[in-house]
Amino acid sequence: MKRIAILSAILLVLPGMAFGEQFAKVGTFGGQFLKIGVSARATGMGSAFTGVADDANSVFWNPGGLVNVVTNEVAINHVEWPADINLTSIAIATNPRSFPGTIALSARSLWLDPMLVRTAYEPDGTGQHFDAGSSTFGLSYARFWTDKFSAGFTLQYIHEGLAETAVNTFGFDFGMMYRIGVKDLKLGMVLQNLGGKMTFDETESKMPTTFKVGASFVPIVTDHHRMLFAAEFAHPSDNQERANVGVEYTLNRLFHVRTGYHINYDTDGVCFGFGAAINTGRQSKLQLDYSAVDMGPLQYVHRLSLGVVY
């Protein structure tokens, strides 16, 4: 009980400290693609995943939850972002059992089709094309430190390119999760995108560091039904505080329906998603998920995820 009280106090005090910012610093930080959520399951629940993270995609949401991968798992995600921009990611996690903990490798790429070079004198294009895109390559590790507390990190190499200009740096995520033991109640905390500055055309910009704290619990669970509720608070360094709430209903451990809502976002609002699992063996399965997020004037953003457990 003493540990629970201490952890709860920390999780309550840190968000209050974050409210010290009185204005948003929108447009002053680099690496914005790092804030685009992957995983159709997570985004179908309103991205309230800090206190849920329990699969290979934890490397992108809360590395402290990566310990739930006890065998081998591969997660592939694709996001159709506005303006014909795409984001594809992959995470491969394994529990080697030769030493404590779970390790994972991950990568993601923001890409779009080549574009025409246009000038004031040739607005229809010069006949030349240029590319723009960003990518990351990450290494993650997580382990249980007690029977209820786990922590982990993701160290990633970050590359951003625009035409002939490129910038490279490193980023670091750190997350933890504490399991209360009642109704599968879990508390999670994560610091994302800690790292060096990025410089384009001699202009420096900081990484979009974000602090998140969340919780999840399962009030209903039977042989055939399971209901998961989740909520989280987020404080991005370049915007106002925001919150996410979500719910997931599971039938027979095979079919999933999800919905959620984003609070105090500029565009993101209601979201929904669904998924299905196919058992392929005693400990192996395929998981396919879809989600859609209403981004107002930017219309719906669609995500597809494929998970393989073996």
Task: Briefly characterize the structure.
The chain has 310 residues and is mainly β. It has three helices and 18 strands.
CATH topology: Porin
Shape: globular
Instruction: Compute the CA-based radius of gyration.
Output: 20 Å
Q: Given the structure, what is the number of helices? A: 3
How confident overall, as mean pLDDT? 90
Number of domains: 1
Low-pLDDT parts are: 15-21
The CATH class: Mainly Beta
The percent of residues in helical segments reads under 10%
Largest sheet strand order: 1-2-3-6-7-8-9-12-13-14-15-16-17-18
CA distance, first residue to last residue:
37 Å
Structural class: mainly beta
Tally of strands: 18
Q: What is the CATH homology-level superfamily?
A: Outer membrane protein transport protein (OMPP1/FadL/TodX)
Largest sheet: 14 strands, antiparallel, barrel
N-to-C series of helices and strands:
HHHEEEEEEEEEEEEEEEEEE
Secondary-structure arrangement, i.e. CATH architecture = Beta Barrel
Content of β-strand:
over 45%
If you had to describe this structure to a student in words, what would you say it looks like?
A hairpin with a 3-residue loop joins strand 1 and strand 2. Strands 1-2-3-6-7-8-9-12-13-14-15-16-17-18 form a 14-stranded antiparallel β-barrel. It has a two-stranded antiparallel ribbon with strand order 4-5. The protein has a two-stranded antiparallel ribbon with strand order 10-11. The protein contains 3 helices and 18 strands. It has a single domain, classed as Porin. The chain is mainly beta and 310 residues long.
